[in-house]
């Protein structure tokens, strides 16, 4: 294997590994933004609840004054701060996008290589060993290593993220 092929394979693997960190960084930024947004929404909910509670207190006070003789105080119900739920199936579909694209890419990659192997063996009458050497060239190695490094790098990051 030539030095240029080794360098190309290593650079493809490095690019794949670095590419696998990009979604992790985007997720970190997204999580930070979501936390900031959630905090702001909760602050607004608390302000709205306080305003609503003050209105209820004012209303209850006027009722107490009107019905003082009967002592008909009405309890004030605490405001509900139920968290907003997410749609689980949309999250699942969103998580399938990258694996489906990768499977489609590898299916296309495999189909192209099989057709190339067929062409080399049947039209050029090459033996299997030289046909495989022709099909599995430096570019195929770089592509294969880059995708594997990307996925296993992403998997390692996910394991690291779950352990912290």
Question: Segments where pLDDT lies below 50 for 5+ residues?
Answer: 80-85
Q: Could you give the count of β-strands? A: 0
Q: How many domain regions?
A: 1
Counting H and I runs of at least 4 residues, what is the number of helices? 4
Terminus-to-terminus distance: 41 Å
Q: Strand fraction band?
A: under 5%
- Major β-sheet annotation: none
Shape: rod-shaped
Alpha-carbon Rg, integer: 31 Å
Order of helices and strands: HHHH
Relative helix content? over 70%
Short structural description:
With 164 residues, the protein is mostly helical.
Q: Could you characterize the architecture of this molecule?
A:
The protein is an all-alpha fold and 164 residues long. The chain has one domain. The chain has 4 helices and no strands. The chain has helices at residues 3-66, 88-123, 128-135, 138-163. α1 runs parallel beside α4 (138-163) and α2 packs across α3. The protein starts with a helix and ends with a helix.
Features:
164 residues; rod-shaped; mainly alpha
Which SSEs are present, and which pair or pack?
Blueprint: H1 3-66, H2 88-123, H3 128-135, H4 138-163
């Amino acid at each position: 294997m030539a030095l240029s092929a080794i360098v190309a394979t290593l650079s493809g693997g490095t690019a794949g590994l670095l590419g696998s960190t990009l979604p992790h960084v985007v997720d970190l930024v997204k999580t930070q933004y979501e936390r900031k947004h959630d905090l702001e929404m909760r602050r607004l909910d608390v302000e709205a609840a306080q305003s609503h509670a003050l209105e209820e207190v004012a209303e209850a006070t006027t009722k107490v004054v009107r019905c003082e003789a009967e002592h008909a105080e009405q309890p004030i119900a605490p405001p509900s701060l139920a968290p907003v739920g997410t749609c689980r199936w949309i999250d699942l579909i969103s998580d399938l996008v990258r694996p489906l694209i990768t499977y489609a890419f590898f299916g296309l990659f495999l189909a192209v290589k099989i057709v190339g192997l067929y062409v080399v063996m049947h039209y050029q009458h090459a033996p299997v060993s030289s046909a495989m050497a022709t099909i599995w060239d430096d570019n195929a190695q770089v592509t294969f290593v880059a995708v594997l490094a990307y996925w296993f790098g992403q998997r390692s990051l996910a394991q690291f993220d779950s352990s912290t």
